[in-house]
# Entry
Amino acid sequence: MKASYVIKRILLTVFIFFVVVTLCFFIPRIGVTDPASRYYPVQSAGMSDDVYEAIKEQVRIQYGLNGSTWEQYITYLGKLFSGDLGNSYQSGTPKVIDLIADRLPWTLVLSVSNLLISLVIGIIIGTMAAWKRGRWQDRALLNASTFTTALPAFFIALILSFYLGFEWEIFPAYTDQNMVPNFDWSWKAISTVAYNAALPVFAMAIGGIVSYGQSTRNSVIAVSGDEFILTAKSKGLSNNRVIYGHTLRNALLPIVTQFGMNVSGLIGGSVVIEQIFNWNGMGTLFLTANSNNDYPLMMGIMIFMSAFALVANLLTDFVYCLLDPRVTLGGR
Amino acid sequence: MKSLTKKITALALGVLLLSGTLLSAGCATSIAERRTDTSSTLYVGYVSSAFPTSFFPWQSRDGIAPTVSSMIYNTLFSFDEETGEYLPAIAQEWCYVDKQGNPLVDENGEIDYQKVEDYYAGNDTSYMVVRVKLFDDATWSDGEPVTVEDVYYTFDVATDNALSGHAGALAWTGDLQHTSASGVLQQQGMFTYAHDEWGRYPYAEDEHDTVIYLHVNKVLGAVATLFTSILILPEHIWKPLVDADHQLNNQNPTEEFTEQYENPVGCGAWTLNTQQSSSQMIVLENRGTDYHLKDKEDPSQPLYKVQTIKFMLYMEQNTAIYALLKGYVDMLDVSMSSNYKNLFEQEEDIQMLEVDGTSISTLVMNVNPKPEYDTPMRTVLKNSEVRRAIALAVNQEDIIASVLNGAGKPASAGLMLESQSELYSEEANILSGEYTARVAEANEILDRLYPEKDKEGYRLADGARLRFEILANPAELELVSYLQRQMQQIGVEVEYKAEGSMAEDTYLFDGNFDMTFQAAIFNVSNVDVMYRSHFEQVDSRSSNYGRLMDETLNATIAAMRTSLNLDTKYALTKEIQKLIAEEYYKVPIYSSNVISVARTDRFRGYVASAGETAFNTDTLEVLEKVV
Amino acid sequence: MKKVLMRIGCILMQILYAIGRFFKKLWKHKQGRVGLIIVGFLAILAIFAPLIAPYDPYDVTQRAAKGLLPSWEHLLGTTITTGQDIFSMLIYGTRSSLSIGLITGIVIAILGSLLGIAAGYLGGWVDTVIMRIVDVLLVIPTLPLVIVMTNVLGTSYAVIVIVFAAFGWTGLARVIRSQVMLIKNANYVKAAELAGASKWYIMWRHILPAVSNLLIMSTALTSAGIMVAEAGLSFLGLGNPEAISWGKMLADAQSSGAMLFGHWWSILAPGVGIFLSVYSFMRIGLALEEILNPRMRKGSNMIKVFKHLNNTYLDEVFASMDDDSKRRGEYQPPAANLAEVAVTDAAETKPQDPNAGPAADTTSENFEPAEKETGETA
# Structure
């Protein structure tokens, strides 16, 4: 992997991030002359215009909307470099970064669990299906995958929450907001979180398992063709090792790619599921910000998600290079 | 391969076992804290996106913050909707006095409005003097006594824009004739023993700390917001902290300020349990006998019967209802739709309270758009005859039956509820009467003005169909479709139009709409402010969406505000209702009931007055624990 | 004037002929037939909805009591908040869902092909600019971005189509671009260039037909993806509030507490509707792929597309529809059953690198089908 490639890639990432940030800054200002106008209070009778102007200026300062658009943009960029994503419009104007930090772990609990479960079980199932190619395991996997791809994940989640949650009451249909008021790493806290997270993760993982399973199966078969089955049936252990070593390493490439994409969508991908189960993560934070027209919070979350996706992509590229040095990325 | 399969199977079984124990452990310990809680703790569910962590009264205006602030802090008085009187909170009594400080009361000690009017109407002063006496045993939660200096400081800072960051001006001290600027007194309108250089007013020996005199504008409603909406702050905490560089309503608070915001010291009956409170749960502890107001029947008992209140946050109403059904909370501080009534009727342990609402939903018609927003249809609406026809065609009973499932009442065109007995004017109720007769009359009016109709039966004005767009949010779609049907009977078409995006933010204030919905609440305590906001103020962000500019109405409102005679005031209010009704500017659609639910397996005796959910101070005073 | 009209008429005839040919091929293909039947069924429901549905859900006079259980009068009962007949709403929902999916799919096809061909053929700064835009759009999480745009621009039908199209063309553009870059060097193209044909002419008459197969295939798949995404959007309450769509029915069911009441049918029914529409389009797309590109019937990248349709949204969908240029060259005989379809090489699935053009693999044998097609229409 050439150093020049690494540098080029990083520069590209920075450039894209910059464009994203600019977009996020200007989108809420589309077609709006005075973004603070919705927050001005009523001018009570007897209040002179000067006083009212002063109050309006105060409101603008409070929401960080004073100065010309260009000035606001520069301030915005400056703050971004120091890691400050602005203040939300909620009462008490908490910092966006604090709100995100508060909710991020909860989203990660769901997404990471989903990813791990899908990955591990998916690979196992996929390899088994590849080994039993043509038999019922293989066909079952294929049917499952066509079935689950046409069903939106949130629908699966609704069905699960209805039956497992409301009717049979095995899991809580709505996760409790106060499941762990103060999270210490005790067995009680962990088990409570796990219990509440079970349904959302399960809903997401159904599709994920089938998806990884199908990819694994396809790539294992592609990489080794019939050799795989023939050699698998032979008894030579060392041969097996060789096949597995060679096969898996190459078969893993599409998995890595898929994994990389899932990682980059780690934060933004569970918006609807979180809403269904009332799971207090970044997704619900975003939705409530949207309904309150809380633009700094919305844009802050988007920038955060994009940054995360960018970094994840970058890392995936590098991992990919390591796994398959033949691929000269970027070089012609 | 087989050994690999065996290994995998073994591993899988192990993982399953582990997750099984994990989940069942979680199942056992999670959530149901309330079910096993035998203490006197009330679990209240609240629907909101987040809970604030700071409860500074002037900062937090939305969600649960005002409720909690008003429990931690106190105002001078609280307002009794039914009798129209001021009930003691920090202050025990008040009256008007003359310029020497002599009370203008009758032989029973009650305020004699006749005396007040006689004295002040002819008087050349621009103000009236009010005397307020506090309780002498009220204390702050850190032990310090509540004195008039706290009241003085609070009102003073409220008028001082430099110190309060203009927030005080929004606290409605507009009727108090006292101002300070940057800590320097400009015009003194309040007098206490310590702040009365020239000894203008009398202070008895034991009243040095409990009596304050206020100069207010010469309107009867001047005391309303001063008494009931300004939460009093502790001077000994804030005065040392606040200066021009460190404003009271600071948006970038220093550490000391944040410390005070998050650990509020108030004089209310409740204190915030900061250890247990978080962004998901607010815990309030009863100060018990520490609080100066006691139980009305038995003064040795504290006023409120519940030891602790825990507010639990739910993001969505259905989650909250689910929590209630499952027993995670005792009650919900939520007014719910009547569609859920069936859900609760079967449940044994659940009590449903349905009370009259206090607000009236109205259909607002744009009567006076700004010239740049004038359209042919809006010109049609300028004619009050057309508006009258539309108003006649609104069938409140039909809407209440279909949209509200019967959980509501028709409202008078004067926009005053019958329960407001002092103010309600039956004469203003001009839109009642049999519906078919009303429709006939409406058609008669429109036949005169717009006799032409197109193929589908809609009337034409200069060849264009009479068509109005109602600005509404998606929840009101059903309402709009019923109105469509009703308007169809008189040949008028109405359509749903989604409320504009941010760019159109000022549409309501500039008159850039045909029709929209608005809720109106008028009662004894707010008519002074609300009538002006709804019908008089123009070119500002008031509630007068349609920019009505009616001189007679404005004059009557001004007269009502400034009258010092209570009877005249009430008579003028009735007059105003008639004028409002005849404008056909805000047409009543319904007044919906407030439906709330509570569980009766731990507490009993929930009550609710008009417009309240089961969670209110009356309930807290009478609640009994089920043993 | 007459000439222009004749030109347009000719083109229309060609398009109709091509479409007819596709339908015939689809019908013969076993999987395609299934898809076609379901789509036909849904289309009939959509077009003749007023005749088929027992009630008109838009008509206020036809409301019944709220929250009724299924009965003979109301096959799926009524909604809890408004008392509309759920079965009728289901039938009317086909209109909104199918139309948004198709229209957006077509707009994406137009946009994506235009930009992809331009980037691929014209190269240079045009290419760089377009690819950078694609990068930026891929990085921003799609669903939140769509939510923000509906917040700012409103939630009408047009806005939703525009927003989805504006953020959904990226994957298609990339795929088309990579294919164009391969075709660019083909002999007949070079010949046309030498003969002095203008760039636009070449793009229109040679390049476009060459990628037309890919285009048509992806229109079907894109429509499927859009239908899922739109269902998600209306589920969040951000779709067009006046239209009756399945996503909105699910949202209403959930927010009105259907689950609290135990009305499972009001949740199941719209979900089945979504499933049927997406599944049928998927099938058609897959079948088209098998029919049109026998060499490319490895079909893997398309299958991967569908895996992603399930649990993530558009960006994953389109990011995975990537360069088919890197292939391992394993040829499999035509298979009627998807189970036989083997996946291609790993490298092909790598979506991230915008610059990864056809560099690594330039064996021209993979591109004969394309050449053949252009040979026909040339």
User: Anything to note?
Assistant: Chain A has eleven helices and no strands. Confidence is low (pLDDT under 50) at residues 328-332 of chain A. Chain A has two domains: 3-81, 96-324.
